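TASK: fixed-backbone design
INPUT:
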């Protein structure tokens, strides 16, 4: 008996076309950026999407040397990693407390964290500038390390609180019957079960911290010894004659750490989700 094949419906075809079209729209600028980093200005303007004549890494070495991108990447890594550590140190205990707290006070505190989404980034620029000057931390990475977590804490606390609420009360009660305290329950029970939430917070916070430009420019400034990668790359652009191949190469250099970190954390999150699904 032959089986009749079902033809894909119009909606399914439209969904596939939309997905492929969206993917192309995302990949096309990235392709243009990568191929431009191997071209001279004449090649870029005459044949924007064409393949380069050679794959010389001269543009990359020039961008790294002229803008000191190696030092800028190190500064960005220091700022980003230290800020991520502060976010986790503050957000994890706060989320645990909110997830297990009951009553109006806990609900009000959680709503207060949610209000952080309503504050535009540029609105806090002047008070932040004055605070950095008052503390004597102007033109230092230390202030940025302390400031950036404040921009990410609302999202981190709200997300982790929702993840921690999915942990069954029975698991915590069993641990407490064995004599476990609050920190033991948090570290040995909650943290392993909310790894996908922690990885999500790390990915979103890493992207926000690594790509931060405005506050790094104002607070740290253009000092070559301390400036971050996002502040260093625009220095490759000249008002007289800009080598767009060098500028493109410098931009590609800034994307490499983001791609590496995202790939590692994404695999960790998928593994944690699959592990949780198997246990269930």
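OUTPUT:
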């Amino acid at each position: 008996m032959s089986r009749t094949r079902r033809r894909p419906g119009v909606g399914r075809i439209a969904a596939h076309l939309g997905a492929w079209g969206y993917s192309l729209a995302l990949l096309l600028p990235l392709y243009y950026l990568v191929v431009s980093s191997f071209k001279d200005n004449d090649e870029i303007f005459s044949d924007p999407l064409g393949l380069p004549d050679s794959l010389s890494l001269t543009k990359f070495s020039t961008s790294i040397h002229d803008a000191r991108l190696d030092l800028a990447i190190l500064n960005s890594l220091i700022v980003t990693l230290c800020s991520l550590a502060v976010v986790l140190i503050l957000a994890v205990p706060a989320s645990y407390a909110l997830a297990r707290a009951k009553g109006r006070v806990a609900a009000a505190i959680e709503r207060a964290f949610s209000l952080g989404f309503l504050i535009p980034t540029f609105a806090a620029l002047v008070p932040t500038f004055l605070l950095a000057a008052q503390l004597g931390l102007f033109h230092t990475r230390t202030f940025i390390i302390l400031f950036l977590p404040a921009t990410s804490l609302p999202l981190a606390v709200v997300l982790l609180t929702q993840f921690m609420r999915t942990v069954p009360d029975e698991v915590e009660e069993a641990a407490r019957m064995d004599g476990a305290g609050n920190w033991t329950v948090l570290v040995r029970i909650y943290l392993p079960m909310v790894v996908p939430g922690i990885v999500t917070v790390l990915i979103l916070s890493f992207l926000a911290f690594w790509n931060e430009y405005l506050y790094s420019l104002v607070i740290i400034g253009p000092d070559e010894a301390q400036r971050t990668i996002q502040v260093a790359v625009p220095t490759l652009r000249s008002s007289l004659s800009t080598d767009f191949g060098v500028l493109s190469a410098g931009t590609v250099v800034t994307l490499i750490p983001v791609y590496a970190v995202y790939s590692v954390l994404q695999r960790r999150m998928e593994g944690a989700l699959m592990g949780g699904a198997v246990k269930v």
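COMMENT: Residues 275-280 have pLDDT under 50 and may be disordered.
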